[in-house]
Amino acid sequence: MSAFPLEQEHRPPGTPLSIIIPVLNEADALPILLAALQPLRAQGAEVIVVDGESQDGTPKLARPLADRVLISPPGRARQMNLGAAQARADALVFLHADTRLPPNALTLITQALATRLWGRFDIHLDGRSHWLPVISAMMNLRSHLSGIATGDQALFIRRDAFDAVGGFPEQPLMEDIEITKRLKRLSRPTCLRAKVVSSGRRWDQYGAWRTMVLMWRLRYRYWRGASAKDLAKEYRHVR
To answer: Glycosyltransferase 2-like domain: which residues (predicted)?
Structure first.
């Protein structure tokens, strides 16, 4: 459990899980994700979409299939923090628009958070490149050994732990790496072997190994102390 006692903030009963989805111009991907989340809504989970001022009609598409659609200035960390602040459940999961949870996600997350403060799923990257299964396996191994997770692994966090680390740091890149580093000071994560399926569109578009090397380089520089702002500029430039 945690390295120190955490004060539990109780929410109204009846909402077992809040699924928070930060989006920006995801009109193609988001309706598919939200349709897949309807069985979880039927089990009592709430779905919160936080839009970062999309220009493609994403909020309008989201409203019929989500419990709430919030509008925020763009910035994934800022959007996720806003969603968490409005969430009703004590269990939070942060989901990218191109990532699908396994069908039994609610049970898996509930069981995991009964004994640990946070966790993540293994990942399967879905796309054209035949390298994606290898990259997926490398990502899962790295995360298992390091205890560090990325946002496309569907991070799930107890609210008291989320509040204890101050939520996501509002930086333009590596906010997932940073929050998991802080959460590790409270406890090791639960590493679920069940897999989320995430789109490999980034790897397909820019080249699988080119993208992998870029991400390794950026993470290494972040580890060495480079600012997230400078790294975000490089990331956007390369892409």
So the answer is: 18-135
32-91: pLDDT as tens digits: 999 999 999 999 999 999 999 999 999 999 999 999 999 999 999 999 999 999 999 999
Instruction: Map out the domains of the chain as residue ranges.
Output: 18-238
- Secondary structure string (H, E, C) spanning 42-74: HCCCEEEEEECCCCCCHHHHHHHHCCEEEECCC
pLDDT band at 9 (very low <50, low <70, confident <90, very high): very low
Helices 175-184 and 76-86, packing angle to 10 deg: 50
Task: Tell me what pLDDT residue 212 has.
Answer: 79
CATH of domain 18-238: 3.90.550.10
Query: Distances from the Cα of 108 to the Cαs of 52, 120, 181, in angstroms?
Result: 29, 10, 23
The Cα–Cα gap between 159 and 161 comes to 5
Structural tokens at position 162: 């989320």
Cβ of 112: how many Cβ atoms within 10 Å?
A: 21
- Burial (CB count <10 Å: 0-12, 13-18, 19+), residue 125: buried
pLDDT confidence bin for 238, thresholds 50/70/90: very low
- Model confidence, pTM: 0.88
| DSSP-based three-state secondary structure for 129 | coil
- Distance between CA atoms of residues 196 and 194, nearest Å: 7
Residue 198's identity, in one-letter code, is S
